């Protein structure tokens, strides 16, 4: 096939079509318009460039629709071209987005970050984190004091990702009705705790990092980290930089599911590459925030039982003198 025909084929068939045919499904909650996450069991593929590109967040694999077909079907390039040609005219299932596209052009990352206020008592993000997600005020105040959280729009939280120099390069966005990552920002690491800590706990979300910090009572000598659910060359470089300090060790505190297990294996492989010890810390629920919320539910139930036990029956109170 001529080069011009291959280029036309590349434009005509989306990576999403290849993934749907292979049994992958869109994870809407974890997707954005610029990066659509597809899952098939523990496998994850992120589709970018309006369907023309893709990458695997758990490996270094990436490319175009032909490279994706080669990867999934274990084919050579010529065979992959034929398989992609069979998908011309294939209609991809539409993705229903809850958040309308922004009409505002993205400004400079640091300017946008500094333009948002710190969480205040009773504010939208305060209620979301402390009431809905069971993050205690003490942990939220620690994050505020470190300057790593901001008030996002509509009661959402912005959790900073920073580089090795402490410069904010992007942020996780989490709220009651929205989750995403800053437009134009870079995923590196969310960092809660002492920057020179030797115990590095890596989670998949900033809220999980804060939840684990709560469960461990913000353990001294520990840095609670989040990759924001992604794995970029900058994330890997940042982790290697942190592990370079003598005496450091890695705690793979990712989610208790197949994706979290795969992520933990990759983290442990990275630690082995730089000759640092690592352990798997698996949450007893789906993730660390679910563990925290379950503890709060149990505490509220216990307090309710104690109050009822301390109060005499109605009949006894009515018969008591006075």
In whole angstroms, the N-to-C terminal distance is 99 Å
Q: What integer is the average pLDDT?
A: 87
Q: Strand order across the biggest sheet?
A: 1-2-3-4-5
Give start-end ranges of low-pLDDT stretches: 100-106, 314-322
Structural class: alpha+beta
Share of helical residues: 25-40%
Q: Report the β-strand fraction as a percent range.
A: 15-25%
Number of helices: 12
Sketch the major β-sheet: 5 strands, antiparallel
Number of strands: 14
Order of helices and strands: HHEEEEEHHHHHEEEEEEHEHEHEHH
InterPro entries: DUF3991, UCP036054
Pfam families: DUF3991, Toprim_2
Keywords: Plasmid
Organism: Rhizobium ruizarguesonis
Descriptive overview:
Helix 3 (65-73) packs across helix 4 and helix 8 (206-215) crosses helix 11. Mean pLDDT is 87; it is low at 100-106 and 314-322. A five-stranded antiparallel sheet has the order 1-2-3-4-5, covered by helices on one side. The protein has a five-stranded mixed sheet with strand order 10-12-11-13-14, with helices on both faces. Strands 6-7-8-9 form a four-stranded antiparallel sheet. It has helices spanning 3-12, 15-21, 65-73, 77-85, 109-114, 124-132, 137-146, 206-215, 233-243, 258-273, 288-310, 314-319; strands spanning 25-26, 36-40, 43-48, 53-55, 62-63, 149-151, 157-162, 168-174, 179-181, 190-193, 199-203, 222-226, 249-252, 278-280. With 322 residues, it is of the alpha+beta class. It contains twelve helices and 14 strands.
Q: What would a concise description of this structure say?
A:
With 322 residues, this protein is α+β, with helices and mostly antiparallel strands. Helix content is 39%, strand content 18%. It contains 12 helices and 14 strands.
């Amino acid at each position: 096939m001529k080069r011009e025909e291959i280029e036309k084929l590349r434009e005509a068939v989306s990576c999403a079509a290849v993934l749907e045919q292979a049994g992958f499904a869109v994870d809407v909650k974890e997707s954005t318009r610029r990066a659509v996450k597809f899952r098939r069991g523990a496998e994850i593929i992120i589709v970018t460039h309006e369907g023309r590109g893709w990458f695997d967040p758990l490996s270094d694999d990436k490319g175009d629709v032909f490279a994706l077909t080669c990867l999934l079907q274990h084919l050579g390039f010529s065979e992959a071209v034929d398989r992609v040609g069979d998908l011309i005219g294939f209609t991809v299932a539409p993705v229903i987005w809850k958040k309308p596209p922004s009409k505002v052009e993205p400004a400079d990352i640091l300017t946008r970050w500094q333009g948002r206020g710190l969480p205040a008592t009773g504010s939208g993000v305060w209620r979301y984190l402390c009431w809905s997600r069971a993050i205690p005020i003490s942990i939220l105040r620690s994050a505020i004091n470190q300057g790593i959280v901001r008030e996002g729009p509509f009661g959402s939280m912005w959790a900073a990702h920073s580089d090795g120099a402490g410069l904010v390069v992007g942020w996780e966005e989490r709220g009651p009705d929205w989750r995403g990552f800053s437009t134009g920002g870079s995923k590196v690491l969310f960092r809660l705790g002492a920057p020179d800590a030797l115990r590095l706990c890596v989670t998949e979300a900033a809220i999980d990092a804060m939840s684990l910090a709560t469960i461990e009572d913000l353990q001294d000598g520990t840095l609670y980290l989040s990759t924001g659910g992604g794995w970029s060359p900058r994330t890997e470089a940042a982790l290697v930089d942190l592990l370079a300090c003598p005496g450091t060790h890695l705690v793979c505190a990712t989610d208790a599911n197949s994706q979290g297990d795969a992520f933990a294996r990759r983290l442990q492989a990275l630690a082995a590459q730089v000759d640092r010890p690592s352990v798997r810390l698996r949450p007893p629920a789906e993730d660390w925030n679910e563990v925290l919320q379950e503890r709060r539910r149990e505490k509220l139930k216990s307090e309710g039982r104690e109050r009822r036990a301390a109060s005499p029956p109605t009949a006894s109170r009515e018969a008591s003198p006075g």
